[in-house]
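User: Second chain of the day. Same drill as before.
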Amino acid sequence: MRITPAELQKLGLPLLLAVAMLAAGGGLIWSADAALKSAQRDAAAAFAERQLNGERLARIAEEEREVKQKIDVYQRLKAHHILGEERRLEWADAVNRIRKQRELLDLRYRVERQRQLGSLPGKPGNVDFYASAMRVDLAMLHEEDLLRFLADLRESGNAYYSVRSCQLSRSGPGGGGTAIAPRLRAECTIDLITIVDRAAKP
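Assistant: Same format as last time:
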């Protein structure tokens, strides 16, 4: 079949339109592919940023939890008057109060000069620990008097009470008599520990 020049002239415009449409379609395909790749890159970048932000939030939450724990410990120490300078008057008041409440017949004590404790593992550089040794001489009816005295002393606050040593001895005859008299004696050394934070504002 032969195409005449007149027919070819009639087909020229449709062919030109077809070529233009093919070129436009190819451009659209290339543009869509480029847009897809760009969107994929943006999505990957957004995912990475979201993951990084999630890790940052997790670290911040962990740091907040640690700070809250440290604040709780600090508040408990402060409530028990363990932070700051030693409180000898409060210690004396606590011992005298326990003596009266427990009706301890013979309780003598003395608090020695404060000393700084040596280096402790994990101790912050601006925090110092001090201890004042309390020597206690206690006459007792039975061993439970000593346990109650030590428990009351710890409950009184004003320091961290650490029992270094206690020696029990019999000071009177055994049972059988009608008079109530102490038959045991305890000699204890108790460290009254306080913490001084040199970085804390007065």
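The first strand starts at residue 106 and ends at 111.

User: Great, on to the next one.
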